[in-house]
Amino acid sequence: MKCKFIIYRFDPAKDTAPHFDEYEVEAEPSDKILDCLNKIRWEHDPTLAYRFSCAHGICGSDALMINGRVELACQKLVMDFKTANNFVIEPLPFFNVVKDLVVDLKPFFNKHRRIKPYLINPDAPPDKERLQDRQIQEFIEPALRCILCASCTASCPINRVNENYAGPAALLRAFRYVFDPRDTATDERIESLNSEDGAWGCRTMWWCTDVCPKGIPVTKCIGQIKRLIKEKDKLKNALGEYMEDKNV
Amino acid sequence: MEVCPNTRTGENPNGILGQLQQIMMDNVSVFRNADGLNNALKKIAELKDRYKKVKVVDKGNCFNRNLLDVLELGHMLELAEVITLGALKREESRGAHYREDFSKRDDEKFLHHTLFRCSGKDREPEYFTKSVSITRFEPKERKY
Ligand code: SF4
Questions:
Q1: Whose CA is nearest to atom 6 of ligand 1?
Q2: What is the ipTM of this complex?
Q3: Are B84 and B37 in contact (CB under 8 A)?
């Protein structure tokens, strides 16, 4: 059947402003949106630029705005949309466009790096492995499913008003390390998350959870960080009062 | 852009890509035999010839998907060729490599790695082997 694709185009070498191009594609209802983009590239316009790699929702490189919603082009099928086979494809919002559907993700990965997305533990590694408690594994498991596709951060309204805000994806990764007992930097991590650029930037708007193509409860995980910060604060305050009492 | 000079006025890469997929699917898939493999080699050589004139439409130097497609296709053609050559050399069946015309494993002749090197000026693949160091798992006959 015939599908109409209206695609955002911008080539910095030629264009002063972006425009939309229209393409007609023969597609099956079960074809992925990515298949259609490939068809357009092969049959109509080989200059159409977009990112993709695995085509199976693992690499996280083809997050795009499809009919006004952020989706992975490889996870959505033609029949998933009730738009009479019309599709509007735009790049991820918020980020700067490099060319056509390709955006500059450097700010996204910088934020990710900022939360130190690796295990911090100065102890020498044991012979075999650092064992993890099963329940804790289950608790942080959702965060492990993140494929860093940037859908959440691109959709987050706070991210647009405060450019220093870590954003949902980075906070989700922070959640994973803060609650992992094998990591010994918990206090420093909590300290750096305790600000408007960290966990408190989140106003619980649920947009990240709504768009996440891996179904991760991002907002809830950020909520867990907030809870932990408050608990530690309480503990600190209680300890302070106790010390004061003793001195008096 | 240097790898793809303007003088190339042939076809787009996607036609060759599609045909390469079909050839490999038909001949170098799960069940292989000498006829099919030789047939594939002949067709891959034709595609390699066509590839020499393949066209790059996008001359830009910013996220040039078209150029990427052309470069990838070149590598795919070389890989398809050595995969087929290797399958042809290995006149036995082992693991995922199944030859209809040689259904038994032959340790006498083939207990080694099959390798190719494309170092010459014409990049013709040159066949060589390397011995296998067997550690924890002894090679065994496949009985399922
Ligand atoms: S949390 Fe979900 S939407 Fe955000 S980067 Fe990870 S996979 Fe993508």
A1: A146
A2: 0.77
A3: yes
Specify whether A99 is located in the same domain as A111: no
In chain A, helix, strand, coil percent, each to 5? 40, 15, 45
State which CATH number among 1.20.58.100, 1.10.1760.20, 1.10.290.10, 1.10.1200.10 fits the domain covering B13-103.
1.20.58.100
All residues of chain A having their beta carbon less than 8 Å from the beta carbon of residue B10 are: none
Chain A nearest CA to B13, separation (Å): 8
Record the pTM.
0.86
Q: How far apart are CA A219 and CA A209, in angstroms?
A: 6
Domain of residue A111 covers 106-242
- In order, the DSSP letters of B87-112 are HHH--S-BTTBEETTB-S--HHHH-E
CA nearest to A6, candidates A23, A25, A27, A29: A23
Structural domain count, chain A:
2
Which residues of chain B carry a pLDDT beneath 70? 1-9, 142, 144
pLDDT, tens digit, 9 for 90 and up, residues A6-37: 999 999 999 999 999 999 999 999 999 999 99
CA atoms within 13 A on the CB side of B65: 21
Q: Is the CB of A171 under 6 A from ligand 1?
A: no
Q: What are residue A8's DSSP bridge partners?
A: A20
Min distance A148 CA to chain B CA atoms (Å): 20
Q: Are A29 and A79 within 8 A, CB to CB?
A: yes
pLDDT band at residue A242 under the 50/70/90 scheme: confident
User: What b/e string do you get for A40-63 counting C-beta neighbours within 10 Å, with b at 16 or more?
Assistant: bbbeebbbbbbbbeebebebbbbb
Could you tell me the CATH number of the domain that includes residue A222? 1.10.1060.10
A50 interfacial to chain B (CB closer than 8 Å): yes
Tell me how far apart the alpha carbons of residues B65 and A46 are, in angstroms, rounded to a whole number.
Answer: 7
Q: Does B66 touch chain A (CB under 8 A)?
A: yes
- Residue carrying structure tokens 């399922």: B144
Six-digit token string for B23: 């050839």
